[in-house]
Fold this sequence. Notes:
Strand content of chain A: 25-35%
Number of domains of chain A: 3
Number of helices of chain A: 14
Oligomer: homodimer
CATH architecture of the largest domain in chain A: 3-Layer(aba) Sandwich
Number of strands of chain A: 16
Distance between the termini of chain A: 48 Å
Mean pLDDT of chain A: 96
Amino acid sequence: MKEVKIGILGFGTVGAGVVEGILKNGDLMAERTGIRPVVAKIADLDVETDRGVAVADGVLTTDAVAVIDDPNIDVIVELIGGVTIAKNFVLRALKNGKQVVTANKALLADFGEEIYRTAQENGAGIYYEAAVGGGIPVLRSQRAGLIGNRIESIYGILNGTCNYILTRMEREGLPFDEILADAQALGYAETPPDLDIDGVDTAHKAVVLASMAYGAPVPMDACPTAGIRGLSSQEIDNAEELGYRIKLLAIIKDNDGEVELSVEPTLVPEGHMIASVSDSFNAVFVKGDIVDDTMYYGRGAGRLPTGSAVIGDIMEAAADRLNEAGVPVSVTMMLQKETLAYCPAEKIEKRCYIRLSLLDQPGSMGKVMESLGRYNISIASVVQKERHTGGYVPVVILTHKAKEVEFASAIQEINSLSVSEAEPVRMRIEDFES
Amino acid sequence: MKEVKIGILGFGTVGAGVVEGILKNGDLMAERTGIRPVVAKIADLDVETDRGVAVADGVLTTDAVAVIDDPNIDVIVELIGGVTIAKNFVLRALKNGKQVVTANKALLADFGEEIYRTAQENGAGIYYEAAVGGGIPVLRSQRAGLIGNRIESIYGILNGTCNYILTRMEREGLPFDEILADAQALGYAETPPDLDIDGVDTAHKAVVLASMAYGAPVPMDACPTAGIRGLSSQEIDNAEELGYRIKLLAIIKDNDGEVELSVEPTLVPEGHMIASVSDSFNAVFVKGDIVDDTMYYGRGAGRLPTGSAVIGDIMEAAADRLNEAGVPVSVTMMLQKETLAYCPAEKIEKRCYIRLSLLDQPGSMGKVMESLGRYNISIASVVQKERHTGGYVPVVILTHKAKEVEFASAIQEINSLSVSEAEPVRMRIEDFES
């Protein structure tokens, strides 16, 4: 039986999950693959706290560098998080020719190019399934099962916290702030919650997915990002009445050779599979030019689900090392091109949901329609609700497809109209046509 | 750039799809992986018919054995189907030490053990992603991404024809025979349709999934199989009223170390993701002890989707060969044990839907309840519909969990009651508790 010696950096939630998984099923993995995973070293600044998993004497250490430099260790698993120390450690391990496994989406989003190139130059591999979609083997599906496909589009629910909040808002009809506070109390949302609810975490994952789909590192600033902070229950209710649900989506498309990329709250038809993804689950829809629609669903976070993905990577990294497979596809796929062409804002088209609060007097609606018409935005449906107190009525408009830049201009113009109270709310509608 | 030389046996629908995919995206695959796929030979008895894809001179041949024996060919792709010639060719290729890719579920279900052992003995690999779930990378997810998981349960919609028929019956309210005839006319169902609608095709795929999950070849007779032939619209309507949909499910569970396995039409809660899988799409729910619930969704058949899975396998087989990786996990995972323990019928428990046609007279229902009680079957709900013509009333019973063998005895007893007209209809209800 061959063995793979693993050095884990960071003994937090996921680190403990990985160790637990290997303790539990290490024998099974050895039976299945012929390779026995052995946790040789675990480095953490805190070697005292009980993580609830058994660790043999001499395995725990505070000296991460010694683990990275240990010639007996085949695979380094980075589970520290952040982009400073983690980056140094990952680069050092790759320069040592180690196989590296990481769950660190921020690190790949911000410094992916440097990391992939360092791996390539040193004949090493970096594996990062756990960075996107937690336990869901979605990157592996892209780089193995779908390797023969040009990727036409990817739609992802990639942040469990946001999906949990949206699901509860929908079910319970309570306001965003209240659900968020409760989610924080229950440990489903971080404090502060910014990275999650402002969409940044989703964007980190989106750029990794897009990089793999189109073959070059994608910078974060190529991904316009909006989160769900302060989303009103009115939007949830209106969407439901109209046959939609609101999801925070990562949207990645090949627009005639140019990459369209964004993270934004989006109305999705309630009959579509992605609308059924609830609570803290994640899901990724991938459409390939050969395979057509596929979807991958599972837990996007958590000690064991993320641990499952890390373990899958460890075993692949081990097999690649034992077979002297060289630089793996998880690296070569990210470095096919120097750079990508991105779809300029002027070319991006979408459908939108627009909610206005209009002065309840003749001509109000006419002025709005005039503005929309001026920017070539045509209307699919309009619902005017009963009058609110204060002489304003809520109006909900669903548009046909129009240009993003024209939406922006039209909304600005409508906002400046005297008949419009408060800033209009606008969200994307996605019908998954491509 | 490295090259992989491919020999394809069988130039039918899927064969042409594979060639089309490689023609279309071969450059992309080479860029991504560093390996260029080259279709060196295609063997078919018919080398005249135009398959709509360009093939270079000298590639087409009627001599399959020459292709299998050609020392220049690295990967043999078996797309002939059936279990006679295909078996001989696959075994011969493995004995030649070739990597073999197949989409042939019947072959693996019937002769998997011999094939995996031949691969192992000859240091070769057999890859068969396309045999289960068409284009969906579900086997690869099990043997790579989820490699660290003990599989607790698998629920699969694995036959697109059945799912298409069920979806249309549900939407259009038309009888089974009519939809089947239409599906045949449209090319969505084979003539004769037996393998699909009697559940045999689903069972072929179920035993492959179960073999991989639990580590030994599973014989077809370990999988009790019922299809959807003659399913009445009444069942579809009743299920809908009760908040369920009917799906033909492959059900695979680890029951305390014993494998429970079946293929049967099953009522699934309409809110569950698997209920949203419609038309000819397939989906597989896999629950691992570490990763928890995951799901994989996509097209279960068709020239290009199946071609996509075959191409993924070709590229993996090529990489394994170039890296001298030896016998792959797709073989070792199937041969961990000599044999598996199966859950005996006396231990299998499920919930059921039962539809009876009862004489509309006092005491009828009492007799039925008495029979159910005698076999320890307790009732979750009963709906008695209005009287039919002829003095019989339809009664629908949803039970709690009870033993399969007791259901069988109770139904036999009820069928013999003078108050019961026609044979009772019984189907599983699955709540996905584990």
